[in-house]
What we know:
By secondary structure, the chain is α+β, with helices and mostly antiparallel strands. The protein has helices at about 5-10, 25-30, 55-60, 70-80, 90-105, 130-145, 155-165, 180-185, 200-205, 215, 220-225, 230-240, 270-290, 325-340, 370-390; strands spanning about 15-20, 40-45, 50-55, 80-85, 110-115, 115-120, 145-150, 170-175, 255-265, 295-305, 315-325, 350-355, 360. Magnesium ion binds near residues 21 and 115.
Amino acid sequence: MGSGNQRNTQALGSYFAIIDCNNFYVSCERVFRPDMRKRPVVVLSNNDGCIVARSNEAKSLGIAMGTPYFKAKKLLRENNAGVFSSNYTLYADMSERVMEIIEMFSPECEVYSIDEAFVSLRRLQEQPEVWAGKLRKTILSWTGIPVSIGIAETKTLAKIAGRTAKKSSEGVFILPEESDKRKQILEGVMIDDIWGVGRRLGLKLRNIGAENARQLSRIKPETARRRFSVNMERTVRELRGEPCFSLELAPPAKKAITVSRTFGRPVSSLKELKEAVSFYAVRACEKLRDQQSRAVVLTVFANTNRFSGNAYFGKEVRILPSPTFETSEIIREAEICAEKIFRQEKRFVKAGVILSGLMPLNCSGPGLFDTSSKRKKEKLMETIDKINQINDAGITWAAAGIKKPWKTAANRKSPRYTTCWKELPQAKA
Ligand SMILES: [Mg+2]
């Protein structure tokens, strides 16, 4: 931990803020349904299975996160609750709007999940509470989404401040400097509610006598590292007010991923069109995983020569059942699109796949939307990507065709010097 002096010289400007949308999915629904403002509202997971978002009124009814809908149905009906199936396209779009406003207010911004962003207050020109109040008001009036803002010296502490902010009427909370109040707040945060701890580590920490954030902050950092990991040491230091986790300023993820090509020769069979579209879907999914996102909207298009007599442009849009980056699932949908687009007498010269409604990986609350079998399939995808990165022959999908007679001619392409092991430039001595 930094010495006492160091702390005092730290201007408030070096603080972090977390901006967290309140009950995000519910708030999105309420924007377009003002009649739902005062009523309990819940949002259901894929296939209306479980409750994945609750308004405060629904929380007060005692409905827990992840409750199967059928178990809460009666209670919800008795309380005149609003019940919505999830609308990921809407949530992804609302999220983008909120994040754009946050970026206007603070150029150093890490979009942490669909409804949360960390920002650095390093270069802040005004009082943090004034800044936060303005940001909160702007987001509310431009998008209709209420947010809470927690501010503290480290990301871990900002998360804790955010919890208090959520309960306060102003929606903004700055963690006070060393004081009884601060101790009290840290004592009120249970061990597994600390950012980066979770249930499994929480159990182990309880065994060594750390049941809340204050107790964890008092463990020696060296002990935390020895008995757990470097990350645990960092968490301990962060709880003591020493920043260890910096903002992850990833390059802004693309808002849509497009893979399209002109065919090497016209395609007039459904089989070949499906193969081509599947092949582009494979590439698009790789890009999707590469930028750590899932998609909810799939667009497939194919067109004939537009200078020919009766040019045809076919397009199909599918909303996927839940956000995914899983190739086989997207291929399946892409093939359905291809079937709809296909016309017997047409000669297609180009096709493409667009993935949009993109969401960062960590936004979909693991374990809530995803069945464990889905999670397993996604793990498999990640493994295949790793294999394909080092081995160019790699693993491919049968649906994408083996010979690919329609493939764009690229006989004169230069080697992929930097991205493929087999094509690395060779030096001879
Ligand atoms: Mg939230």
